[in-house]
Amino acid sequence: EAYPSCTVTNVQFCFDVRKLMKLDAERRKAMKGRLYFTTKAQKEGKIMIKTHPCARIFCCRFCGFEQVDAEQYYGELEEKLTDEFNAERNRITLKRLDMAFVTFQDERMTAVILKDYSHIRCRKHPQQSSVTTVVKSHHWGVCYAPAPSDIIWENLSVRGTSWWVRFILLNICLFVLLFFLTTPAIIVNTMDMFNVTQPVESLKNPIITQFFPTLLLWAFSVFLPFLVYYSAFLESHWTRSSENQLTMHKCFFFLVFMVIILPSLGLSSLDLFFRWLFDTHFLDEANIKFQCVFLPDNGAFFVNYVVTSSLIGTAMELLRIPGLLVYTARLCFAKSEPERLHVKRSQAYQFQFGLEYAWTCCIFSVVMTYSITCPIIVPFGLLYMLLKHMVDRYNIYYVYIPTKLSQRLHVAAISQVMVAPILCMFWLLFFSVLRLGPTRPVTLFTFVVLLSCIIFSFFGLCLKKLQPRKPSSYQMSDQSEGAFNDVERSSVSSTPNSNLFVATVLQEPELSLTPAASPAHQSYGTMGNHLEPAEDGEDGGLQSFETELETVEGEYRSGPVMESQARYQ
């Protein structure tokens, strides 16, 4: 009525599916366990299992863990979870959220609506209809929709004031914890108080004594950003692209302060940095000599850091020791053989572009910052970039499952790299002021160049923000089967056009599986599919059921490739 020239082809409302998706994942696991033990009981008879999570760790008989019939246990658990799932699914219409996905006939209509609603910020009301006062359309926020596979459906229920309160509190706690208490320099200084590094220094080996402090800084700088990384999951972002982008920015600026700024200034934490910045009497009391900041030894420290990151850091990414520890813990706490097989098949994760971009930009910034005052760091920076490129390419191809994110994430990473030349000019200016004096022509020229870099970077950033946002261009393609676990299957929506923007858990029919013999599907990033011949008789049942489950899911999950790129509002 308000826009007679625009034709709406589809409207999909959003619902709070957080609990429903959790029940669906648990129901599928219980169903797989029942099917596994049903087949195994036909060959071996009644099977007893211990259902306590710690039963595999404390496996002695004196621990008192009760044994139950495996088939009966998983059958009752599946029935209970199915009843809860169906009840929650029947109540889902009562949990409708105040957002919807609207599909228009063509791109021009979408642009007209978006342009009209973009004027609300300028206190200009959009076109009105007879129900405008009822639905309060002048208060609506309208934007282009992301790709369906990019949406985290379970997080859509966290919005408005609750989301901002959660976001602000989490980041305040993170700021206090990381910057004031647990910077790597503080940890290393604490270790020196207990003479932890004294046995290493007593070796009098120049290779060990030179690289051991650098190795400690690298180890702690690897561990601490993971706190920043995991905090992004608690913030409940609506899309994976925004989650990765915010993680990238937070980790990058944290690493820049932790690896470049604080060690270069000889400060141990941001507490000292802010006191030096704002306290006028701090320099009178503290023993900080800035003439020692830009000595050659300081550059040698960062050369060692880049070499350590190139050789040890990239090798650790190939070993994936944190992932191995998580995988081992999940196997230890699995209650039965079907759950262990499920852990083996669902241990692959998406490639974390945000964290990897932050690391790459940080090392590039280190190399760029000291490229003039310490040129020897440049070849080692090139070595890091080559090794990092090969390792990431291998991991993306063969280790992690396919990741589809918005191109804005990659554009933001390119814009973030502009911090590196600005830091380089800052360091060159500090070097000139301390060594040559503030009135020398070289110092004044460096200051003018630095000011020009900052102005042009800020101007370019403002131009990008003022440009109208373009719609997301994507084509839906068939998802690769066997590469997602149950929770991820519930999050990804890749269905025909009428059901594009609906969580998969709301559109799949009930699955009734029967035992069928089919080979297990091998996909990149999965483990446990190559079994010994002696174990084939025991584990083949569950593998065939999982393969059939994935095949049935794929029929409802995969749609035809769209012939033309669509724009959704």
TrEMBL record:
This is CSC1 protein. Residues 516-569 are annotated as: Disordered. Residues 1-155 form the CSC1/OSCA1-like cytosolic domain. InterPro entries: Csc1-like, CSC1/OSCA1-like_7TM, CSC1/OSCA1-like_cyt. Residues 167-424 form the CSC1/OSCA1-like 7TM region domain. It comes from the Eukaryota. It catalyses: Ca(2+)(in) = Ca(2+)(out). One of its GO terms (cellular component) is plasma membrane. The gene is Tmem63c. The keyword Membrane applies. It comes from Centropus bengalensis (lesser coucal). Keywords: Membrane, Transmembrane, Transmembrane helix. The chain crosses the membrane at residues 163-187, 207-230, 251-274, 357-387, 408-430, 442-463. GO terms for molecular function: calcium-activated cation channel activity.
